[in-house]
From TrEMBL:
Name of this chain's protein: TNase-like domain-containing protein
InterPro entries: SNase_OB-fold_sf, Staphylococal_nuclease_OB-fold
Source organism, top-level taxon: Bacteria
Pfam families per the UniProt record, alphabetical: SNase
Source organism of the structure: Hymenobacter glacialis
Origin organism lineage: Bacteria, Pseudomonadati, Bacteroidota, Cytophagia, Cytophagales
Length: 155
């Protein structure tokens, strides 16, 4: 069931605190994986999402379950006057703010969206695909190895 709300806090580019029906809850966006806050482009991706969502922009949230951390797993759409609502996960991938992460292939064209961002060198793909690590790979690195990534490339 889709519910209307608004984002009151961007935790990182794929995790938000949403206020809906007088209750605030944490949402983990399905279909994408965004850089961690300590990862190259992590803060830039989160800041870009925060500017997009703004403090008063309405969102439409469809909860699909809970994760191990107690976050609601959900899809989110952004209403646009007179047009179909935009899927936030697709927007993040197209703008290069997150990786497409759709292991069950629920969204047609998701790989093409990411390929478009890579080809156009948008967001985290600005310096090309070499040296760009998905968050699950980033978390496995130690401090010394993390310092080697994203050096010399600015957002």
């Amino acid at each position: 069931m889709e519910e209307a709300g608004r984002v009151v806090r961007v935790v990182d580019a794929d995790t938000y605190d949403v206020l809906a029906g007088g209750v605030t809850y944490r949402v983990r966006l399905l279909g994408v994986d965004a850089p961690e806050p300590d990862q190259p482009y992590g803060h830039q991706a989160a800041d870009s999402v925060a500017r997009l969502l703004g403090p008063k922009r309405p969102v439409l949230v469809t909860r699909r379950g809970m994760d191990l951390y107690g976050r609601a797993l959900a899809t989110m759409r952004l209403p646009v006057d007179g047009k179909p609502a935009l899927a936030l996960d697709s927007l993040l991938v197209v703008r290069g703010w997150a990786w497409a992460f759709d292991p069950k292939r629920r969204v047609a064209g998701r790989a093409a969206q990411q390929a478009s961002a890579v080809a156009a060198r948008r967001g985290l793909w600005k310096c090309g695909a070499v040296g760009v690590l998905m968050p699950r790979q980033w978390r496995k690195l130690n401090y010394k190895n993390k310092r080697r990534y994203g050096v010399g490339c600015t957002w």
